[in-house]
Amino acid sequence: MKFGKVQDPNSIDFTLPVDNKNTAAVLKKEGKGDLSVYVGCAKWNKQDLKGFYPKGTKDELEYYSSQFNSIELNATFYRIFPEDQFKKWYDKTPDGFKFFPKLVQNISHLKRLNEDVQPYVDKYLSSVIHLKEKLGTIFLQMHSNFAPKDFDRVIKFVEKWPKEIRLAIEFRHTDWFNDPVIANELYALLESNNITNIITDTAGRRDLLHMRLTNKEAFVRFVGANDESDYDRLEDWMKRLVEWKGQGVNQIHFFVHQNIEVESPLLSRYFINMLNDNLGTKLNLPNQLSDDLKLF
């Protein structure tokens, strides 16, 4: 993912901000519960993850899902797949695997949550539900020029979304975060409707690190800078997630992107190892990658 890419990562202060003052209050609600952790990449195709798949791998998804327990499914942004495709993906993956699909662009970027969006929502959901128990949180990514002037569209969309299906939203326009009044109204809307507030960590858009959870799910999209600092950043995230777990987070969904996606599995492996050490998880460590991926 190239969103937020900068020419010189060393010019960026990658320090994680302190939590929004309301995050702790959200995490205290209704007890702590058991912790579930899902970590994955954004894509599974061999072209993007060259060097990750052993020679002779016939089915990339089958192999990928034997190494990771989840995938951030970005392919669903570009078109609505027929239900048979979701059934095939379901059948190719093991028990416990989860897909976190992005809502189709007709909803977010073309119709922009207007009054004509519902048929696309209905069609999308009628297909994606065939992932059954392997369906993780669906996420909506709004265009960076979608501003608070259309807040009424967000309200209508969120309130109409079926409550039994988990939804997370990523906003990118700066005014959603830089105007405290708007930000608080947005967070209150998400919290009252149990919608997850995605946190995106990317070099060129530090304002997206709002650190405001709206439920007990931490959904983090981490975008590496193809730099040694990526490992330090992941260590900082590990510390924050340990704190959140202590406060009541019970779902961690963490997806690793890179400007050069081939390096994503390497970073993911490093992060998974820390999770197992610090949170007591027993996530599979993806197979050791080929030497040409060990760049730092």
UniProtKB/TrEMBL annotation:
Gene3D superfamilies: Protein of unknown function UPF0759. SUPFAM superfamilies: TM1631-like (SSF117396). Signal peptide: none annotated. PANTHER family: DUF72 DOMAIN-CONTAINING PROTEIN, UNCHARACTERIZED PROTEIN YECE. This is DUF72 domain-containing protein. It comes from Aquimarina muelleri.
